Amino acid sequence: MDFLVDEISVFNNPIIISLGEPLIRQLLNCTKRDVKYYWDYIGNTKSGRNFKYIDAKNNYLGQRIFPLAHQPTCKKNDFYKLYLDDYLKFINETILSD
User: Fold this and answer.
1) 17 pLDDT exceeds 80?
2) CA distance 53 to 66
3) Helix (H, G, I), strand (E, B), or coil: what is residue 20?
4) Distance (Å, whole) CA 49 – CA 38
5) Do 80 and 39 touch, CB atoms closer than 8 A?
6) How far apart are CA 30 and CA 40, in angstroms?
7) Which of 2, 5, 26, 73 is the most exposed place for a label (fewest CB within 10 A)?
């Protein structure tokens, strides 16, 4: 983790995207460790579209992280297929508002 923190420290406000829950489970120091939480999953493959990112204070990198499902999950899971474009738009809008 120290090596990774060192590597990203040279960037000013880096955009960090994580792929899959195994990775975010290693990075987080909070209880919200499911990608679907950050995608505002409300059940029945639906999102309330109140998207979130992992706040810097809630992870070991000390940076904002945008969690994405990895490709095999996106291919087989209707929820992530349906809302991928919406979440990517959320990432873009968040970054542009900085």
Assistant:
1) yes
2) 5
3) coil
4) 10
5) yes
6) 17
7) 2
> Which long-range contacts (C-beta less than 8 Å, at least 24 apart) are formed by 83-90?
83/39, 83/47, 83/49, 86/47, 86/49, 86/51, 87/39, 87/51, 90/51
For residue 96, pLDDT beyond 70: yes
Give, in degrees to the nearest 5, the angle at Cα 68 between 65 and 74: 180
Convert the pLDDT of each residue in 81-94 to its tens digit: 899 999 999 999 99
* 59 pLDDT above the threshold of 70: yes
Return the H-helix or E-strand segment holding 47.
Answer: strand 46-47
Question: What are the structure tokens assigned to 39, written together?
Answer: 């995608």
In whole angstroms, what is the distance from residue 70 CA to residue 58 CA?
21
- Judge if pTM exceeds 0.85: yes
Alpha helices in the chain (DSSP H): 2-8, 21-27, 35-38, 71-76, 78-96
Token digits of residue 23: 């990775």
Q: How many angstroms separate the CA atoms of 94 and 36, rounded?
A: 18
